[in-house]
């Protein structure tokens, strides 16, 4: 009787061993198939797909392929591992732990693939911005965008993982929404400045190095455009720090747009006994005598108005760089007064005539 029980026990253990060997072999076959599939995917992405993308005008698709090929083949391998684990008749806890761990790795790999693709697109867009608006623009816009997108992708990945393990995502999203609302109310001014800073970077009303003038009369060269504030270096070598929200909601003059040429103006009054045409000719000739003054557009002189004691004249001229407008204006003023003295053209002082009448 004992030998018969031993025989059945041995027979049962043999059947159990055979069962596990069969299941393990099936899992190994599944994993091997996906491993081979990963090699095929890698070969296609490195050999055949680049031949198709070679016909496109940009190299963006080639750069994206180079970045996503390694994690894509890794994704196929872990997908095979996931299905192999699911095929094994494991205890429930062991199955949940193993399959859950592999699932988390798969979600991470998928997030990395999406992140690398978006990163290449942003870098390509940053280079286009640098070509269009000058070097430095890409370093201002792209890093904040990458951080925001990374946070967004990580949040989605966490929600997908929590959903897989049957956690209540709605409560988590609600808690995050309430927390975000509280933070937004507490830091609304900072958030407004950050959003305005992002708007300034995208809309590009001015660039670093441009000279701008505010409605308050303050003006200077843009030294830095940050997420919260914009720094302007004034002509007296002081730094003006302005919140971005104020710059977005005000009218300003960009002296460097559409190009760096600038128009100067000199106002002068001459006596009523002067020849207006001669004065206009002298003003234009004086401006043309300064080498930095552009001949195209040519300087122009106008008789503007009748003053109380003088004829008001205006000279308009162009220079090739707005930063040189003041020294050139100084040279023109100096030569104008010398030419007026040489041609006996007087610049009258304000004169008032007072008539006194004798009373009876």
TrEMBL record:
Give the UniProt subcellular location, in the record's own words. Cell membrane
Residue intervals of the Mechanosensitive ion channel transmembrane helices 2/3 domain: 147-188
Where would you find the membrane-spanning parts of this chain? 24-45, 97-125, 145-163, 169-187
The similarity comment for this entry is:
Belongs to the MscS (TC 1.A.23) family.
Taking every annotated instance into account, which residue ranges of this chain make up the domain Mechanosensitive ion channel MscS C-terminal?
266-347
Q: Where is the Mechanosensitive ion channel MscS domain?
A: 189-255
Q: What is this protein called?
A: Mechanosensitive ion channel
Q: Does the keyword Calcium apply?
A: no
Which SUPFAM superfamilies does the entry mention? Mechanosensitive channel protein MscS (YggB), C-terminal domain (SSF82689), Mechanosensitive channel protein MscS (YggB), transmembrane region (SSF82861), Sm-like ribonucleoproteins (SSF50182)
Keywords of this entry: Cell membrane, Membrane, Transmembrane, Transmembrane helix
Note the topology in the membrane.
Multi-pass membrane protein
């Amino acid at each position: 009787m004992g030998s018969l029980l031993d025989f059945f026990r041995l027979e049962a253990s043999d059947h159990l061993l055979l069962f596990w060997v069969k299941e393990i072999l099936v899992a190994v076959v599944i994993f091997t198939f996906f491993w081979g599939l990963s090699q095929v995917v890698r070969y296609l992405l490195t050999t055949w797909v680049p031949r198709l993308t070679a016909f496109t005008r940009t190299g963006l698709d080639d750069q994206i392929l180079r970045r996503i090929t390694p994690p894509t083949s890794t994704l196929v391998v872990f997908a095979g591992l996931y299905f192999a684990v699911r095929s094994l008749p494991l205890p429930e806890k062991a199955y949940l732990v193993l399959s859950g761990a592999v699932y988390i790795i798969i979600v991470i790999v998928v997030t990395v693939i999406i992140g690398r693709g978006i990163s290449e697109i942003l870098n390509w867009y940053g280079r286009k911005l640098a070509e269009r608006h000058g070097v430095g623009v890409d370093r201002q816009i792209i890093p904040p965008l990458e951080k925001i997108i990374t946070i967004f992708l990580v949040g989605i990945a966490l929600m997908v993982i929590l959903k897989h393990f049957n956690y209540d995502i709605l409560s988590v999203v609600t808690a995050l929404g309430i927390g975000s609302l509280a933070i937004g109310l507490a830091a609304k001014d900072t958030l407004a400045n950050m959003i305005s800073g992002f708007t300034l970077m995208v809309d590009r009303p001015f660039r670093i190095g441009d000279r701008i003038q505010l409605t308050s009369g303050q003006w200077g060269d843009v030294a830095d455009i940050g997420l919260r504030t914009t720094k302007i270096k004034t002509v007296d070598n002081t730094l003006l720090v302005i919140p971005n929200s104020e710059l977005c909601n005000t009218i300003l003059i960009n002296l460097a747009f559409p190009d760096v040429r600038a128009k100067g103006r000199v106002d002068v009054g001459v006596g009523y006994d002067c020849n207006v045409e001669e004065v206009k000719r002298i003003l234009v000739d004086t401006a043309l005598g300064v080498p930095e003054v552009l001949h195209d557009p040519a300087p122009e002189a106008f008789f503007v108005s009748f003053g109380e004691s003088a004829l008001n004249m205006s000279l308009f001229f162009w220079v090739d760089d707005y930063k040189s407008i003041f020294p050139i204006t100084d040279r023109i003023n100096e030569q104008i007064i010398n030419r007026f003295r040489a041609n006996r053209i007087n610049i009258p002082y304000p004169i008032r005539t007072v008539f006194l009448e004798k009373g009876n």
